[in-house]
Please model this.
Amino acid sequence: MSCVRLVLFLFCVATDLHVGRARMENRQMRSYRQLCPPGCTSCSAINGCITCQPNLFLFLARSGMRQQGICTHSCPTGYYGVRRHNYSICYKCQIENCETCFGQSFCTRCREPFLSYRGQCIDRCPEGMHYANYSKDCRPTVDCMAGPWALWSPCTRNGQNCGYRYGMITRTRDVLESPSPNGSRCPSLIETRCCLMEMRRCVGSDFTTSIIDNMESSENVSNTLLQCSNEHN
Model:
């Protein structure tokens, strides 16, 4: 009988030790994970992130002789991302003078003043090729590319925004990419339209009134715009 009690006692002690050890390990693991930066699934106090969540890349940032692991959604400039079955990691571009690359041997954008051509960085376009200043690469033909329209200017006439029935408004846009000699020409970069002055008389006159208040119908407005257009053509 005493042997049975001894066995039960030892079994209970062993069980308590196992449960206590498991609880301690769980607490240590939770505390350890709380110290990891966001996105890390495991980390080191010295080297930062060791593994990342499945949708993130592991980027090893060098600081002196040490590498610090960082989990990021996209690789920084000068690096490209590779997704593998168990992890995703950032590798440094191996092409000289490359700023951004797609894979180990294909550069998509070079550091100034170098140009991108067939995945490599060169100092001038080959013969028969033309420099595209917006995309900073070499092409057989470069068409003009205009930017978005700016906002319309205030309605003015002869430098004034009052004193007249109608005036003109103007908007412009810039050339983002200049065309090569064999490329398409640039579209119109300036656009002008007639407009109705808000104030017929300027401040300081006997009275000021809105031109729209004096218009009897939409037909009169159309006639005024037509008069404006005919006079400025």
Remarks:
- Residues 173 and 188 are 9 Å apart (CA to CA).
- The longest strand covers residues 57-63.
